[in-house]
Design brief:
2 domains; about 270 residues; Jelly Rolls; 6-stranded antiparallel β-sheet; mainly beta; elongated; 4 helices; single chain
């Protein structure tokens, strides 16, 4: 190795990271140093020549007994992502922490229901949040358990869903205030395990300001489905379950229910 004068440390840091730095950073760390150059690198027995983002070779050197390597080249050689965060003057290598997203679960403080209604058959709703309401665990029809949920079921006092010319259907609807604060609604939609063997079918709707934005006919045996719905600008979001058997007769032992599991609004 041989002695070689390097210019300011600010230049060295920029070369190591392979990203431009602000003038304030240069001013903070500017210092002339003497280094030992001519250092070679081998990785797994093979020569490695580090290069910057533009493909130019970057020199390895020793300063005060410490060997300085070009961080970007080494990180990328080992398959690690590298990012320069100028706001915090931080080099980040590898898996980056997920960006925090503001979410609001149904039933959480500030997201309690605002109105519910039902017709023909005592249809009902229930929701819970584990760390607030200490809710019981509810399951979808594949056995997955959840503490955050909204379940809707259709039934009457005799435990029958029905549809006939006099009473067209039984249904339950529950409304939540979104107040145009959220962009998405997310949940896992599934048949509620409690009624996983119901016969016939039911219709499930999601409405934004009383306009249907999602509709699905559901029956026993349906697999869970992930919902990711656009609710941008909506003041109110509603969930509605309708008995949709198509029969003119009362159907014995035909309880039906669906669940929205981990239901939440996302800003």
């Amino acid at each position: 190795m041989k002695n070689k004068n390097k210019i300011v440390i600010a230049f060295v840091i920029g070369a190591l990271v392979g990203m431009p730095l602000s003038g304030a950073v240069y001013a903070m760390v500017e210092k002339a140093i003497n280094v030992m150059s001519g250092v070679h690198i081998q990785i797994d027995g093979k020569d490695f020549v580090p290069k910057d983002a533009s493909g130019k070779e970057v020199e390895v050197f020793v300063y005060n007994g410490t060997t300085y390597l070009p961080l970007r080249a080494i990180s990328e050689e080992f398959g690690k992502e590298i990012v320069w965060d100028g706001s915090t003057k931080t080099v980040k290598i590898g898996k980056m922490p997920e960006k925090k997203v503001n979410e609001k679960y149904l039933g959480e403080k500030g997201m309690e229901y605002m109105h519910s209604q039902n017709e023909y058959g005592n249809a009902k709703y229930a929701y819970g949040l584990a760390d607030i309401n200490k809710a019981h665990e509810y399951h979808d029809n594949t056995g997955n358990g959840y503490y955050n949920y909204l379940v809707l079921d259709c039934l009457n006092e005799k435990n029958r869903c029905f549809k006939n010319p006099v009473n067209p259907y039984s249904y339950v609807q529950i409304d939540f205030p979104s107040n145009a604060k959220y962009s998405r609604f997310k949940a896992s939609l599934a048949v509620w395990n409690k009624y996983k063997d119901f016969t016939g079918d039911v219709k499930f709707n999601v409405l934004a300001d009383d306009k249907v934005i999602f509709e699905k006919i559901m029956k026993a045996g349906d697999m869970p489905e992930d919902l990711d719905l656009d609710v941008s600008g909506a003041l109110k979001v509603s969930f509605k379950l309708i008995a949709n058997t198509g029969s003119t007769d009362w159907l014995d032992d035909n309880k039906s229910g669906i669940g929205l599991f981990d239901p939440r609004f996302v800003e």
